């Protein structure tokens, strides 16, 4: 099994910053893409940012220039630095990874989700 543990959410004033972390552990052979999604009340879950195994990144237009995604492959951890936060960034943020695990002699690719961490931007 693969587990994702998120941390770093909380309450912050508009214009403030937060840093989210997500550490993966368990039966992991290789982590491919890592990313963050968010879901606001009454809304669909949306992609915030993604980082490939080679370090390539992509961002939602709404967070470009304010959020930065990074990863530490030695720690199987992905980060999301969020600056200049706005009330519309309020949501539950979910970590997501595409990883390979070994099952006997074969390699199995699968997708995994974290439990979610609440980010609230309010004065």
Keywords summarizing the entry:
123 residues, mainly beta, seven-stranded mixed β-sheet, four-stranded antiparallel β-sheet
Overview in brief:
The protein is mostly beta strands and 123 residues long. The protein contains no helices and 11 strands.
Overall radius of gyration: 15 Å
Measure the end-to-end span: 40 Å
Helical residue percent? under 10%
Shape: elongated
**Structural class computed from helices and strand pairing:** mainly beta
Low-confidence stretches: none
Enumerate how many helices there are, as a single number: 0
Pattern of helices and strands: EEEEEEEEEEE
Largest β-sheet summary: 7 strands, mixed
The tally of strands reads: 11
General description of the model:
The radius of gyration is 15 Å and the shape is elongated. The protein has 123 residues and is an all-beta fold. The strands form two sheets. Strands 2, 4, 5, 6, 9, 10 and 11 form a seven-stranded mixed sheet that branches. Strands 1-3-8-7 form a four-stranded antiparallel sheet, with no helix packed on it. The protein contains no helices and eleven strands.
């Amino acid at each position: 099994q693969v587990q994702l543990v998120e941390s770093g959410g909380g309450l912050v004033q508009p214009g403030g910053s937060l840093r989210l972390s997500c550490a993966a552990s368990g039966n992991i052979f290789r982590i491919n893409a890592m990313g963050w999604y968010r879901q606001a009340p009454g809304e669909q879950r949306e992609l915030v940012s993604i980082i490939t195994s080679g370090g390539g990144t992509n961002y939602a237009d709404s967070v470009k220039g304010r959020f930065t995604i990074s990863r530490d492959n030695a720690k199987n951890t992905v980060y999301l630095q969020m600056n200049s936060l706005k009330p519309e960034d309020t949501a539950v943020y979910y970590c997501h990874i595409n990883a390979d695990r070994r099952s006997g002699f074969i390699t199995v690719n699968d997708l995994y989700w974290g439990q979610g961490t609440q980010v609230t931007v309010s004065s």
